[in-house]
Design goal:
heterodimer; A: alpha/beta; 9-stranded mixed β-sheet; 4-stranded mixed β-sheet; 27% helix; 31% strand; B: alpha/beta; TIM Barrel; 8-stranded parallel barrel; 11 strands; IGPS_HisA/HisF (chain B); amino-acid biosynthesis (chain B); histidine biosynthesis (chain B)
Chain lengths: 209, 253
């Protein structure tokens, strides 16, 4: 099985590459870091990381000729399992408000709003415990109270509550995991969330939606 | 609830841990990769490497260490020492670092922070500030291991680099570093209260109470220590249990 980790020159995907490669060895998956839409179109799993500001990430993704089309073809038309991480997850939304309004991929209804946590530091940076709201194959073995590593200042507000799979508490609920059908996204960094994160990555690689 | 982070720091020179790490039976106590793996297994929330003799010639050694650590440790890894520009940041991120810390280069030109944050995001840009008390309620940044004053006010500079896009500040109490007498609490609190990004308190930890003080009185979001962990005085777990008993939320694994 070939897993495409989409490289669109946005931030740091090398930690993710190492974690997916480790779990790929356990699950028999081959992980390739690629900016080639052809490779993405043929992949059997797709991972979209993303660090930094929403508009910069979206512009960088749009700047790779044919990439968004390849993602749409694979994920929406062929139903290839897809995982977005951090801003890669936020780009699933309809609209981001960071700096300026920027259209997302629109695959999971919702918008990206600033974290408002009076008296608390922003970014929300560090380990926070998850509250799992709905069972999901990618969250198998993950329990409410397990910790994951977050670093973000903006968060996903889903339109349909059924798409909200897990939250953390930071001055109120903060979206941690969203998903529908063959699409899942984590606000936290599974590649930096030690055993909990590696389990999620392994689950994703075994997932057959 | 967000947890207060406990971060063991490894001082590295020429690819080796300075003074070694003695808290667990390592085949090679001087190997930073083995030490990082042991800290990861012990429940460290992040790991920090500081290249204390960073030179152009030994950069390759550091990249190799970072790569091998990133292949084995799945908690955030911060690397500092000798970082001069976004080119250095890029090279360290490519090697597998999660955050990169600027120090003296940011003093010479705070715009290096903005250039790096614009390219890679604030989440991976840390600014280290080494300061000491020069008058009551006044803290100045020092370089060269605390020997050379810069005339730069620590609190003002923290505001400046946070505005430039530093996602976190690693604040070392230079007048406490190595003394085991605890963080410079007024300094830590002044900086932590002045900026809206997380502040990591560092320098002077000799007892578990010091870690709790840094958070409760210094308002730090994370605490960093080296020798108490390296020499096996306390384990990461003991540190966290003490902090938990003091009412500080921590991640216990």
């Amino acid at each position: 099985m070939r897993v495409a980790l989409v490289d669109y020159d946005s931030g740091n995907l090398h930690s993710a590459e190492k974690a997916f490669a480790l779990m790929g060895r356990e699950t028999g998956a081959e992980v390739v870091v690629t900016s080639d839409p052809e490779v993405v179109a043929r992949a059997e799993r797709i991972v979209l990381p993303g660090d930094g500001a929403f508009p910069a990430c979206k512009a960088a993704l749009d700047a790779v000729p044919g990439m968004v089309e390849a993602l749409r073809e694979a994920v929406l038309a062929r139903g290839v399992p897809f995982m977005g991480i951090c801003v890669g997850m936020q780009m699933l939304a309809d609209l981001g408000h960071e700096y300026r309004d920027t259209a997302g991929l629109g695959w999971i209804g919702g918008e990206i709003d600033a974290i408002t946590a009076p008296g608390l530091k922003v970014p929300h940076m560090g380990w926070n415990d998850l509250a799992v709201l709905a069972p999901h194959p990618v969250l198998e073995g993950i329990a409410t109270g397990d910790h994951a590593y977050f670093v973000h200042s903006w968060q996903f507000r889903v339109t349909d509550p059924a798409h909200l799979l897990a939250v953390a508490d930071y001055g109120g609920p903060v979206t941690a995991v969203v998903g529908r059908d063959n699409i899942i996204g984590t606000q936290f960094h599974p590649e930096k969330s030690q055993a909990v994160g590696l389990r999620i990555i392994g689950n994703f690689l075994r997932w057959r939606p | 609830m967000l947890k207060t982070r406990v971060i063991p720091c490894l001082d590295v020179a020429d690819g080796r841990v300075v003074k070694g790490v003695n808290f667990v039976d390592l085949v090679d106590a001087g190997d930073p990769v083995q030490a990082a793996r042991a800290y990861d297994a012990a429940g460290a929330d992040e790991i920090c490497f500081l290249d204390i003799h960073a030179t152009h010639e030994n950069r390759g050694t550091m990249f190799d260490l970072v790569t091998r650590t990133a292949e084995a440790c799945f908690v955030p890894l911060t690397v500092g020492g000798g970082v001069r520009s976004h080119h250095d940041v890029r090279a360290l991120l490519l090697a597998g670092a999660d955050k990169v810390s600027f120090n003296s280069a940011a003093l010479a030109n705070p715009d290096v922070i903005a250039e790096a944050a614009d390219r890679f995001g604030s989440q991976c840009i840390v600014c280290a500030i080494d300061a000491k008390t020069v008058a009551p309620g006044k803290w100045e940044i020092f370089t060269h291991g605390g020997r050379k004053p810069t005339g730069i006010d620590a609190v003002e500079f923290a505001r400046t680099v946070a505005a430039k896009g530093a996602g976190e500040i690693l604040l070392t109490s230079m007048d406490r570093d190595g003394t085991k007498s605890g963080f410079n609490i007024p300094l830590t609190r002044a900086v932590a209260d002045a900026v809206n990004v997380p502040v990591i308190a560092s320098g002077g930890v000799g007892a578990l109470e010091h870690l709790a003080e840094g958070v409760l009185e210094g308002h730090a979001s994370a605490v960093l220590a080296a020798s108490i962990f390296h020499f096996g005085t306390f384990s990461v777990r003991e540190a966290k249990e003490h902090m938990a008993a003091a009412g500080i939320p921590v991640r216990l694994i």
